[in-house]
Amino acid sequence: MFLSTNYKDALKYGFYEFQTARDWYREVTSDVGMHAELVQYWIRTAALLATPIAPHFAEHIWMSTLKSPTSVQLALWPTPADPVDRTIVDSGVYMRDTIKAIRDAEVTLMKRINKGKDKGKEPSFDPKKPKSVRIYVSTAFPAWQDQCVKIIKEAYSEATEKVEDIRVREALSKAGLLKDKRTMPFVQVFKVSH
After folding, report:
1. Closest CA to 170 of 151, 188, 185
2. pLDDT (tens digit per residue) in 17-30
3. Residue at 99 is within a domain
């Protein structure tokens, strides 16, 4: 039996997304600093991930930075203490995307102010003042979204493990939800995230 090696996935998840996770952690802990044990765990795991493709580099990190008495070639893959909590991961992704959207809006507003497009108007944003954001979290969907979720669940086929789009459209139309411009974007996002 031939097993293929997915180098693209290994590079994407094992290197780029691993780096992104570290960078995000560093950014959100800038006021208190990163936890030393977690950083060391990250370095250890990064060295293990690099071992198959850059063994000399991984060995150098393993011996000089981590001060391990044995070779990286003898190390075992880390075993997670707990299973991955998908809710926490998804919440982190949502927060990261929200922060990016806020920063992008801030950059756009600064460009407008610098170009003088809003002359005569008092700026709604002062970059010199401290910034804060208030985030509200709901524990339930609004009624229209609850209806959409129910319709999507009813249109889900366990045999194909897919949502039958035709059934969703028919049910949304019957419920009078297709007229609302928010419905289809919500349905699409919900289907992708679940």
Report:
1. 151
2. 899 889 988 988 88
3. yes
Do 12 and 36 reside in the same domain of the chain? yes
Q: Are 143 and 115 in contact (CB under 8 A)?
A: no
Q: Alpha-carbon distance 41 to 38, whole Å?
A: 5
SS (H, E, C) 78-127: CCCCCCCCHHHHHHHHHHHHHHHHHHHHHHHHHHHHHHCCCCCCCCCCCC
Question: For the segment 33-44, what is each residue's pLDDT rounded down to a tens digit?
Answer: 999 999 999 999
d(CA 167, CA 158): 14
In the chain, the number of structural domains is 3
Residue type, 10: A
User: Given the structure tokens 């011996």, which residue do they identify?
Assistant: 63
The Cα–Cα gap between 57 and 63 comes to 10
Does 24 fall in a domain? yes
Q: Round to whole Å and give the CA distance between 11 and 19.
A: 11
Decide: 77 and 47 in contact? Cβ < 8 Å: no
The last residue of a domain, from among 52, 74, 96: 74
Sign of the C-alpha dihedral computed for residues 9, 12, 18 and 24 taken in this order:
negative
Say whether pLDDT at 119 is over 80: no
